[in-house]
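Possible race condition, two jobs.
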Amino acid sequence: MGIEKDIQQYQFRNDFQRAEVNLIFTCNWLNERIKQIIDEADITTQQYNILRILRGSKKPLSTLQIRDRMLDKMSDTSRIVDRLIKKELVDKTICATDKRLVDISISAKGLHLLEQLDSRNSDIDNLLHNLTNEEALQLSHLLDKVREKHT
């Protein structure tokens, strides 16, 4: 099965267009599968991303710093953070060095939720089970190469 069969399009302008369409289709496919895995936690993929960013930073971050690290740069970070606050998954405090800013940190409840979701990491990794470790590394390298010229 290839992209042609998946989207029922059998002609592309060229190999670059085929690769672009395949990349977009695969990205959406992967996002949907990850969404299904984390749905049990009643959070979105963007919320999951923010929680992982905060856990990995080991220190509070501003919403701007969070946005810079997010996978989906189009997300409304402030709105997503507000929803995480309502769920008590993150804490918001006034920045000690600049009273105009707020610091966001992951709460104990947020850490506990991520620990539960960590048990599903192998399910997420298995989404790429058709690739060998070497192929996964090569794919990652090729994707980095795609973005090199445009950053």
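Job #2 (started ~2 s after job #1):
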Amino acid sequence: MLTAGEVLDLIPQRPPFRFIDRLLEVDDRHAIGEYTYRNDEFFYAGHFPGCPITPGVILIETMGQTACALGLYLLSLEAPDEDTHKLVMVGTELSFEFLRMVLPGETVRVTAEKVFWRKRKLKSRLELSLRDGTLVSQGTIGGVGVPRVEVGHI
């Protein structure tokens, strides 16, 4: 079984497009990650200059990266002899609603709960909240585990 740190290392995104600082928990049912949106993030300069807010697509990416951690963990359990470093989770479907904005400097916590897992396909229910527990967004995302070399051919 992989540790949370090992799973975090498997997530393919890197700065400036990695939106998970810490993976607090991961097991075969859920993953919990956190990210602090820094004041100098590349997207704030052009997203409502003078009154920046975190774009919804970035919030979705943040949730997707936590779901990716859950998927990579499940892939490692399904095929423990396979090199999980050669696999990646890619998104296939999503549906979210937003309840409030996230401002520069705020820390969010994402909880991804497994809805189903079969044939390397994961559907998970996600909640994104502020550090104080205020719900920001909720919804579902689906993805599938594929070999990294195939990603460009999807």
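The chain has one domain: 4-153.
Logs attached separately.
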